[in-house]
Write a structure and sequence with these properties.
disordered N terminus; two-stranded parallel ribbon; mainly alpha; two-stranded antiparallel ribbon; 6 helices; globular; single chain
Length: 210
């Protein structure tokens, strides 16, 4: 009996995700094409960044984003650090979250939801504690509880604690609150990165929670 309300909401959430993602894609199609050609003209092909990420129950899927970095390498052929590869145009895409718009296709395909823990990297899966791994008990999201409570300015432990809290408390009203606060955070461009960092430092595990 306790699973029925969640099951009903899960079905409603999937229907809402599909219809809303479809509506936004149709509405923003001109913008998506415009940004696509801007990325190609400034960063070259491919315009989309495609990377495998863990989804529901850790099952992998291909996440889509607009590219924000060049493919510049050092003399040995290794990619330069993120801080040297990101361009002013790429920073702008990230600060406005426009680079995330291709994830609407992931939502449309049922790999993501509008609201849920952000999909991270496949190599982090074996590093999670049992509690942290519960963040994969729901679909990853375009935005989530951690995103409106600090985003990349949070420590990994804080972020995972907020993700798991969301898993245990998800509801229509919580999702609506996160959605509206996400719009506010994007407008204010808060929590885009930790101070002094272009991207968040890699997760190497939490010794206290292992």
């Amino acid at each position: 009996m306790s699973n029925k309300p969640f099951f009903k909401y899960d079905c409603f959430k999937r229907c809402f995700d599909f219809l809303f993602a479809l509506a936004i894609l149709i509405l923003l199609l001109p913008l998506l094409f415009f940004v696509y050609f801007l990325v190609v003209s400034r960063l070259g092909y491919p315009a989309l960044f495609r990377q495998q990420r863990p989804g529901y129950r850790g099952r992998p899927f291909w996440l889509l984003k607009f590219r924000t970095m060049t493919n510049s390498c050092d003399p040995s052929g290794a990619l330069l650090p993120d801080a040297q590869r990101i361009t002013p145009f790429g920073r702008w895409l990230r600060s406005t979250s426009i680079d995330e718009l291709p994830e609407l296709f992931n939502i449309l395909r049922g790999e993501m939801s509008f609201i849920g823990p952000r999909p991270l990297l496949m190599q982090y899966l074996p590093l999670y504690s049992a509690e942290q791994a519960r963040r994969h008990d729901v679909k990853p999201g375009f935005s989530g509880w951690a995103q409106i409570n600090g985003r990349n300015a949070l420590s990994w432990e804080e972020k995972f604690r907020l993700d798991v809290w969301y898993v245990d408390h998800q509801s229509f009203w919580l999702d609506l609150r996160i959605f509206l606060l996400t719009i506010w955070k994007v407008i204010r461009r808060e929590g885009i990165s930790a101070e002094g960092e272009v991207t968040m430092a890699p997760f190497i595990g939490s010794p206290v929670s292992r």
